[in-house]
Amino acid sequence: MWIPTVTTAVSGLLVASIANANPTPPAPSLSYLGTLNLTLAPPIAIGVGPLGDRNFFAITGGSFTGPVLSATVPPVGGDWGLGHPSVGAFKVEARYHLRTSDGANIYGQSEGPQQEDLVSTHTRIKWETGHPRYEWVNKMAAVGIGSSDPELKWTAIEMWKVEGPKREGKGRRRK
Ligand SMILES: *[C@@H]1O[C@H](CO)[C@@H](O)[C@H](O)[C@H]1NC(C)=O
């Protein structure tokens, strides 16, 4: 008599644990950092190498405007964009500097693919600085949604920082 009861209880637990195996975790959110607008020189064709068809667009200037910082873009760096003509894919590989209105220098890298609409790009963003006021940029994870002038004289990237979700519990600083 007791066996079916136990079996029912165990299978009930199993069902519950399977149902809870992949609960949707709390989603992070994105906060708007600002929009980077880079003006670009005409491309220099590196040509088709082992990784694809690479073209270099030198940065001639630009600006970053947004709620958390504003900056000018000095004429250094560029986009070493990589095309794969055989698979129709294109990837941004950009490096740039931001000179903030309050005097910090930030080194930025953006990398990621063009989307199916052939207009937008989705990029992973890394920023780096030694300026104490902008120490937070070294710790952020951020993404960019870019679009370009059809003549590729400029490219504008809306940048978003990943926020949360906040975790409970004890952590420790990792070395
Ligand atoms: C980016 O800058 C260029 C040159 O100043 C300007 O013509 C263009 O409208 C800007 N693009 C965006 C999306 O703000």
CATH class: Mainly Beta
Radius of gyration in whole Å, from Cα?
Answer: 23 Å
Helix count from the secondary structure assignment:
1
Q: How many structurally independent domains?
A: 1
**What low-confidence regions span 5 or more consecutive residues with pLDDT below 50?**
none
Helical content, roughly? 10-25%
Which structural class is indicated by helix and strand composition?
A: mainly beta
Largest β-sheet summary: 10 strands, antiparallel
Q: What overall form do the CA principal axes indicate?
A: globular
Order of helices and strands: HEEEEEEEEEE
CATH topology: Porin
Return the CATH architecture: Beta Barrel
Keywords: Signal
Signal peptide: 1-21
Could you give a short description of this structure?
By secondary structure, the protein is mainly β. It has one helix spanning 2-19; strands at residues 29-40, 44-49, 52-65, 71-72, 78-84, 89-100, 105-113, 120-128, 142-148, 154-163. Strand 7 (105-113) and strand 8 (120-128) form a beta hairpin.
Topology:
Blueprint: H1 2-19, E1 29-40, E2 44-49, E3 52-65, E4 71-72, E5 78-84, E6 89-100, E7 105-113, E8 120-128, E9 142-148, E10 154-163
Antiparallel strand pairs: 1-3, 1-10, 2-3, 3-4, 3-5, 4-6, 5-6, 6-7, 7-8, 8-9, 9-10
The structure holds 2-acetamido-2-deoxy-beta-D-glucopyranose.
Keywords: Signal
Signal peptide: 1-21
Pfam families: DUF3237
Describe the structure.
- With 175 residues, the chain is mainly beta.
- 10% of the residues lie in helices and 50% in strands.
- It has one helix and ten strands; from the N terminus they run αββββββββββ.
- The relative contact order is 0.17.
- The model has no long low-confidence stretch (mean pLDDT 90).
- The structure holds 2-acetamido-2-deoxy-beta-D-glucopyranose (NAG).
- 2-acetamido-2-deoxy-beta-D-glucopyranose binds next to strand 1 and strand 10.
- The site of 2-acetamido-2-deoxy-beta-D-glucopyranose has 4 residues, from strand 1 and strand 10.
- Keywords: Signal.
- Pfam families: DUF3237 (PF11578).
- InterPro entries: UPF0311.
- Residues 1-21 form the signal peptide.
